[in-house]
Amino acid sequence: MTNLNATPARLLSADSHSFIAAPDLAAVRILVVGDVMLDRYWFGDVSRISPEAPVPIVRIEKREERLGGAANVARNAAALGARCGLLGVVGADEAGEQVAQLLAESRIDSYLQRDAAISTIIKLRVIGRQQQLLRIDFEDAPTDTVLRDKLTQFNALLPDYDVVILSDYNKGSLVNVAHMIEAGRAAGKIVMVDPKGDDFSRYAGATVLTPNKSEFRRIVGSWSSEDQLTAKAQALRAELRLDALLLTRSEEGMSLYTGSEVLHMHADAREVFDVSGAGDTVIATMASMLGAGMPMADAIMTANRAGGIVVGKLGTATVTREELFGL
What we know:
This protein is an alpha/beta fold.
């Protein structure tokens, strides 16, 4: 039996990123599939407390709308210069129309399925003095008929793309994720999954799985040392037949577990302003780099740097190729 703890560990320095050349991403084709959302931001001034309850009164002065969920993953890949398509479900409503318009503005190929029985998923954030005061979520799960149509369209689109990102926010759009992974790998595609939930078995066979620390702990339990963490990560990677498992660890950086080695990358130290959407940036960046033929170690360093840049921005944001490589 293979000793999963025997894989050599390597610490990657953030400084070595300066030696990574910026790849040409124009020929990289990425298909993002998953839970599509619309992020709405209401910005205002807070000057007093409500007489009705001990809560601040926010006088709204500005509103913004951004792509969220799987759509934010696609937006990040497109911002880097990759050709990107998005397959997902929205409602036949005003918010769904807004998502379609934002996709067009970001030059993302839209393969949205319209479900008249649901409303588009919306996350509404109220911001006062650059602080998030409240978030209101509106969400419905897609109907079975629309999900069947989505799977059929996925199979039709697959030959046109090199990399598939399955962005699971546990909102019901990826009930067929096992079939998508199987089809993608059978077609020779790189299949990356951002997972959610208490059961990772449905992601078996993916190329790369990218859980964060809390998601990973929910599956494997706690650990008391780096060696124990490595053992748990390698056991899960082997059980799910993954080429690699990328664990994002917040302030501790990232760790990549493969069959041949373990790579640790310290967090790219920057001022943290907002962590929302950072995981979207990481998986989109890594997918873009792998699609361009970049080695795994260089791809994880580049994704780590992208995550460090995006947490310094407000809300769901993107990183440009110029920011990432200092062009």
